Amino acid sequence: MCGIAGIVTSWGRVTPARVADMIATLDHRGPDDRGLHVEAAVGLASARLSVIDPAGGRQPMANEDGSIRVVFNGEIFNFVELRRELVRHGHRFRTRSDTEVLLRLYEEDGPALTHRLNGQWAFAIWDARAGTLLLSRDRIGVRPLFYTRVRDALLFASEIKALFADPDVCRELEPAGLDNVFTFWTTLPPRTVFKGVSELPPGHTLTWTAGRVAVTPHWQPSFPDAPPQRSEGECAEVLRSLLKDSVRLRLRSDARVGTYLSGGLDSSVIAALTAAGGEPLPTFSITFDDAEFDERVYQREVAQALGTVHHELRCSHADIGQVFPDVIRHAEMPLLRTAPAPLFLLSRFVRDAGYKVVLTGEGADEVLGGYDIFKEAKIRRFWTAFPSSRRRPLLLQRLYPYMRELQRQPAAWLRAFFHVTREDLDSPFFSHLPRWTLTSRLKLFLSDSVRSALTGYDGYAELAARLPAQFDRWDPFCRAQYLEIACLLPGYILSSQGDRVAMAHSVEGRFPFLDPRVVEFASSLSPTVKMKVLEEKHLLKVLARGLVPESVRRRRKQPYRAPEGKALLAAGRGSYVDDLLSSGQLRRDGIFKPAPVERLLAKFRDGRAIGTKDNMALVGIVSTQLLVDQFINNVGKGTHAGPGAGTTQVYRR
């Protein structure tokens, strides 16, 4: 794992200092080594976290004549097998690293190399003979990659802050990016929340040649029109075999490896498959003071059953509020949930324990049908057949037993909130409309000037234009899966809750459920195998029988959540929240209306803010104000980082 950065220009020269300034902002991603190569019109840099071949895998790495150079962030898990093939084809290797495998594979296959990779990556390859820079991002989007154009130059980096290290890159919020976040929870790549800064979409490749840029897909999620018929037992056996091999590949490391253990089915299955190797397995969990979010009973039960060396990190409201500014500095986008903050603390805990790599259960809900949103959509479709039914809306209440405020709502409210119109049924986004509609209400807090700038912009239309041509032919369940895999998974789960908070402390996350073989097999399955009536992840539960404790295998799905609005206000009056949300500061920044924000704060302080919308609004407004404070207002100055957070980056133009 690494942080990478670079510049290529069609005329003029790239100075070493310019590239060095960029990579210096990414030390948290790669504290073990830093490498730099500059030649005339191109500069490449790497901040390395050495996991595979610490001695031999230094970057930038070049072939023998220096005509091809690579900087690489990620892991190629099947590098051992690829290396054997390449040796048979006459390639010679100087190191044991997967970086050199990537280099030799480019010599062999050129830009088509991505089709042979099983991994998580963001890399840049400079081919001097062709005069071409190739940027690539893995299929699902585990590892980030951003770029911008400055006159004749293309700048790229693992994080936006590295682009901002260049004095010629403008810092300004993009209203449409804010609209995306306050609808979909994330932006729609290539759009980001900063004007002029683009994100390379997951599963895409960018090529630069003589100043011309082309971005093309090399993979996208897909589902069959008619899934092949297989028995449940056969499906479970194939999935188990694929997951075992996925775990085997992801245990390849020259650094110590542990697993996260949430207490849910997904992480428990991964921990069980990892522990089957016989070595003592270290597991890491978060516990909460607030019983509504705490899962320590299940975490401990799994740890005891598997005989792991278990580590727990206790997380309080105050802990979340204190580190939230640092979380935003690393996330580089507004957040609507505080859930990344405990994971930020957990990664620091893992690194302090001496581990660089963790396996996690992320991806199972998306590829195997685990989210309540899938069940909710199914019930809402059933409901349309009996629109006058009083009982069907109550099924929705049973979907969310962990949401106290929803349990208190009367049946009339549930019918109104989850109602289905003919227009809804015809929408390609049927499954996600309740979530996105609720989130969109937060835009009422936006200032008149921001809303005016959004006149004529339609995020739904932008997303609809990007849907695959075959989308309408898929089963409705598969359409919902596609939206999760293509949007929320890379844009939030694997980013703000994944790469960004883990790599903030130089910890690499690995995701066995996102092995391309697992994803492709799961996509080929009938939706009835993934969700049996209303039982989520049915096939995974079949597979898990005898592998994890029955109480965990059979427990209700409880998504990972954390204390929200109250946590941000835990420091009391005079905290960074008061500073950023003061009427004067809000007027100066011009993003939110001061009066509605003031009323929202009063609701929280009076104990009247209990709903999801209020919590999302406060977290979203605070995180946006932090983003502006850290990346725009305080360039060259100290930034808000919360009490005692002395490691806040100072950004300079």
Tell me about this structure.
The chain is of the alpha+beta class and 653 residues long. The chain is 43% helix and 15% strand. The strands form three sheets. Strands 2-3-1-9-8-10 form a six-stranded antiparallel beta sheet. Strands 4-5-6-7-11-12 form a six-stranded antiparallel beta sheet, covered by helices on one side. The radius of gyration is 24 Å and the shape is globular.
Integer tally of domains = 3
Report the CATH architecture of the largest domain.
4-Layer Sandwich
Main beta-sheet strand count, sense and barrel state: 6 strands, antiparallel
CATH homologous superfamily designation of the largest domain: Aminohydrolase, N-terminal nucleophile (Ntn) domain
Number of helical elements: 30
CATH topology of the largest domain: Glutamine Phosphoribosylpyrophosphate, subunit 1, domain 1
Beta-strand content bin:
5-15%
- How many individual β-strands? 17
As a whole number of angstroms, the C-alpha radius of gyration is 24 Å
Helix and strand content put the structural class at alpha+beta
Uncertain runs are 641-653
**Measured distance between first and last alpha carbons:** 27 Å
Give the C-level CATH assignment of the largest domain. Answer: Alpha Beta
Helix content percent band: 40-55%
Shape, please?
globular
Mean pLDDT over all positions:
91
Q: Numbering strands along the chain, what is their spatial order in the largest sheet?
A: 2-3-1-9-8-10
Write the layout of secondary structure elements.
Elements (H helix, E strand, L loop, with lengths): L1 E8 L6 H9 L8 E7 L2 E7 L12 E2 L5 E9 L2 H10 L9 H12 L9 E9 L4 E6 L8 E5 L2 E5 L2 H5 L10 H10 L12 E3 L4 E6 L2 E6 L14 H19 L6 E4 L4 H11 L6 E7 L7 H11 L2 E7 L1 H15 L8 H13 L4 E3 L4 H5 L3 H14 L6 H8 L4 H4 L3 H7 L4 H5 L6 H8 L7 H6 L5 H6 L11 H18 L1 H9 L4 E3 L5 H9 L2 H4 L7 H6 L6 H5 L10 H4 L7 H5 L2 H7 L4 H12 L6 H22 L20
